[in-house]
Specification:
343 residues; alpha/beta; Arc Repressor Mutant, subunit A; Rossmann fold; 2 domains; seven-stranded mixed sheet; three-stranded antiparallel sheet; 15 helices; globular; binds S-adenosylmethionine
Length: 343
């Protein structure tokens, strides 16, 4: 049997993938990228001093990050310093406008422990939350994400950062000029809603989310509090009255729920929507053979409930509740979008 260098490399890359992920997570957790924003950079000793770590292991981490294209080495006389590459500067520095820092911390603290029990998850067909965190999981949001203020902020930070990075493409996917009012169901920190108001200056958006979330929303956009284009309303979208709007947005909501719960929510929406109302769904759509994209299929592995669906599956669910004229926009980043209209 002969070697096939390409397929061998592919397998080796997959074997090493977790080491690269964890190096990125550890560096983000230690806020290494926040230290390396200046052109002169810092030496390994200086970084170690600031993150209170051993010098040799810090140097190993920094060198690994250089090999991954996240840091660059710069030489000043005889001293080697490290600084961020452009992509680290843009996406990994925690204060950057397009920072993924919050999402990366969520991956490290929440998703990684779940993935270490993947074989059990497959064998048992059940969430590994209890194995990973020592507690039973009855309600995903209440038990996993909102059981303490610290966890709640971590989850909200994760949603905030990913919505800021992906929201603009979703908000500008369709001509929404016929809609004047929108309601972003499960709109969390309002990051997606603000992207919609930026893309559509005539639109006002109500962010509707659980009370535990809404009470913290002012942590995220203190500077926007005076804006009357985005308002916040607390409630449970399965139980409480939903605000009236011309357009309902469901961004990264439906994949968390079974078909039964999705039908329940869509039937509530269908009941309050007048003909001509819009429903905009943002998710990563599986391709029709359910063979990609990997990002959606890998994410599904750590989900305890819910499922990833293709654009056709979503369209059929919408159709059942009298939402038709479906239009689909595939975005090559994290979120695709689908718009349909109440008959
Ligand atoms: N839409 C945001 C985005 O795209 O970044 C956040 C998506 S996050 C995966 C799901 C959101 O749905 C959370 O903010 C959560 O609090 C909210 N949520 C979950 N169950 C809810 C319910 N029963 N009623 C209202 N909001 C709910």
């Amino acid at each position: 049997l002969h070697h096939s260098p390409d397929s061998l490399h592919r397998i080796i890359d997959l074997m090493d993938g977790f080491k690269a992920s964890k190096s990125l997570f550890a560096a983000s957790k230690l806020k290494v990228f926040d230290l390396l924003t200046s052109a002169e950079g810092l030496s390994a000793e200086e970084v170690a001093g600031k993150i209170v770590a051993a010098v040799e292991s810090t140097e190993r981490l920094l060198d690994a990050l250089v090999s991954l294209g996240l840091l660059k080495k710069v030489k000043h006389k005889d001293i080697i310093a490290y600084r961020n590459t452009e992509q680290a500067q843009r996406y990994l520095v925690s204060s950057s406008e397009l920072s993924l820092h919050g999402y990366i911390i969520h991956c490290n603290d929440h998703v990684w422990p779940l993935f270490t029990h993947l074989e059990h998850a497959v064998q048992e067909g059940a969430s590994q939350y209890e194995r990973a965190f020592g507690k039973r999981l009855d309600d995903l949001f209440q038990d996993a994400y909102y059981e303490s203020k610290e966890r709640k902020l971590r989850f909200m930070n994760a949603m905030h950062s990913i919505a800021k990075v992906t929201g603009r493409d979703v908000a500008s996917a369709f001509d929404l000029s016929r809609f004047k009012t929108a309601c972003d169901l499960g709109g969390c920190t309002g990051a997606m809603a603000y992207e919609f108001t930026k893309a559509h200056p005539g639109l006002t958006v109500t962010v509707f989310d659980l009370p535990a979330v809404i009470e913290m929303s002012s942590h995220f956009y203190p500077e926007q509090q005076d804006s009357n284009q985005v308002t916040f309303l607390a409630g449970d979208f399965f139980k409480d009255d939903l605000p009236k709007a011309d357009l309902y947005i469901l961004a990264r909501i439906l994949h968390d729920w079974s078909d039964e719960k999705v039908n329940e929510l869509l039937s509530r929406l269908s009941a309050i929507c007048s003909p001509g109302c819009g429903l905009l769904v943002a998710e990563i759509f599986l391709d029709e053979e359910r063979s990609g994209p990997s990002r959606a299929l890998l994410q599904a592995l750590s989900m305890s409930v819910g499922k990833q669906r293709s654009a056709t599956e979503y369209s059929l669910l919408m159709k059942k509740h009298h939402f038709s004229q479906t239009r689909i926009k595939h975005n090559s980043n994290f979120l695709d979008a689908l718009l349909c209209i109440k008959e």
